[in-house]
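Revision sheet: structure tokens.
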Amino acid sequence: ILLDQGVDPIVQLTSRNRNRIALVSDLLGAATIGVTSLMLVAGERAPEQFQPRPKPVLDVNAVDLIRIANTLNADENLTVKPDFLIGGVVTPVMPKPDWKAKQLREKVDAGAHYLQTHICMDVILLRRYLKHLVASKLIQRTNIIGAVAVLGSVDDAKWLRENRPNVMLPDSIFERLQKATDPRQEGILIAAETIREMAEMPGLVGVNLMASQDLNAIPEVIVAAGFDA
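Predicted:
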């Protein structure tokens, strides 16, 4: 439906609940209908309240899945040759001098064209993380996209911190949302300020804005940040 409307969808596939045959089938099916953009991740386990509990497959990990998609890109024997733009996910860290960026290197070596961070609104950490990637020249081999949450309330922020272990929200955001007379508007301002700072960070090529429920807040953030022109 999206392709028919001229939209370039990013198809996300997870390796947790499919074996490699099923994943190859999904990738070939996506290529056949004209999908070119992928986000390939390991996936998260099902919520505890999901009963009966599904058994994870884990035949391949995220690096393997990226490598499989890259292999399909290069396969000259396919009737429909994929032209996948392959993406994955990375977790920003406060790098030590000897940090080797193993997770990122493996995904780049497997064929990731871009890597999106988990939600990280700690701009100090993100700036140092990117500085290390630039200094080590890893940034020349892929593209890094940041991820920002548009928070509607302090409860939104608490839910993310408690349920998404790789999400990085500094305490200052909780304090601002708690004190705000209009938490929704404050969340928009926080996101706008964050992406303005990200725009000045060497090594970052873009930002993915995410909202849990109020999707109308996303264009408001773009306008508030001054990127709507």
